[in-house]
Inverse folding.
């Protein structure tokens, strides 16, 4: 089952329009302005090109139909409105059908800097620009198909592949380190942290990624880099489930983070 969220997604009306309040549009506007400044010279070229294509409004939350028109034209993808949190089954089903889930709520001012569950800003600003890229789009589609068909015990391994690519992926380019993962691109703290001397940054090896534990509520102690967005396409053509089987035999790496503190009962 999906965990509970204190947020509730907004329902589109019969025309697919979501009514955002003035305050919600203002929060969107401030988040976009801050993050555009933050990612300058740090986001990968493919992301910046995708951002031009989707042409996000800066003064209001975009309507999903606006994004769908661009994504359909570029890669055949769509965005789909979902509740604040969905389970793995629904997540993989949507990706397998080239539909990217977008939780239709926006964070409160109290959680302006960080919230654990993905909101409309994270999903749209973080991910939609990359979905205009054919290699990235194909990788995400293949990932959804594999995940939807996979057994529950294998989905945890697949989740690590998604985490260290689509969410927290980095790229080594001729111009230096660049970001393509939406979890970094939508977070000012994480964007700056990536360029500090704190995290470990390693070239991406699929089996290593499948064996790397992560926590969603801390800055990542390790990131993996590809050399080109086409590397993701190459990974999508591999026998990923055979690599999952190998990773299971080898077992997980020791976590590079402390265990989560349990609350006293």
């Amino acid at each position: 089952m999906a965990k509970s969220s204190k947020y509730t997604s907004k329902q589109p009306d019969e025309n697919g329009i979501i009514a955002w309040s003035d305050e919600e549009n203002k929060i969107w506007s401030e988040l976009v302005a801050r993050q555009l400044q933050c990612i300058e010279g740090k986001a990968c070229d493919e992301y910046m090109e995708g951002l031009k294509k989707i042409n996000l409004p800066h003064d209001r939350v975009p309507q999903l139909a606006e994004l769908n028109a661009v994504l359909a034209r570029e890669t055949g993808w769509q965005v789909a409105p979902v509740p604040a949190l969905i389970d793995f089954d629904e997540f993989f089903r949507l990706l397998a059908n080239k539909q990217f889930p977008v939780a239709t709520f926006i964070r409160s001012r109290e959680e302006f800097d960080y919230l654990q569950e993905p909101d409309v800003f994270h999903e749209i600003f973080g991910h939609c620009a990359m979905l205009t890229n054919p290699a990235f789009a194909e990788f995400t589609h293949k990932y959804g198909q594999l995940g939807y068909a996979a057994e529950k015990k294998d989905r945890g391994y697949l989740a690590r592949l998604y985490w260290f690519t689509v969410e927290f992926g980095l790229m080594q380019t001729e111009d230096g380190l660049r970001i393509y993962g939406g979890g970094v691109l939508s977070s000012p703290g994480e964007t700056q942290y990536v360029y500090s001397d704190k995290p470990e940054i390693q070239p991406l090896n699929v089996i290593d990624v499948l064996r790397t534990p992560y926590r969603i509520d801390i800055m990542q102690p390790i990131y993996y880099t590809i050399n080109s967005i086409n590397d993701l396409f190459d990974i999508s053509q591999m026998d990923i489930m055979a690599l999952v089987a190998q990773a299971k035999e080898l077992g997980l790496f020791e976590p590079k983070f402390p265990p989560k503190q349990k609350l006293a009962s």
Notes: The first strand starts at residue 78 and ends at 82. The domain at 22-250 is CATH 1.10.800.10 (Phenylalanine Hydroxylase). The chain has one domain: 22-250.
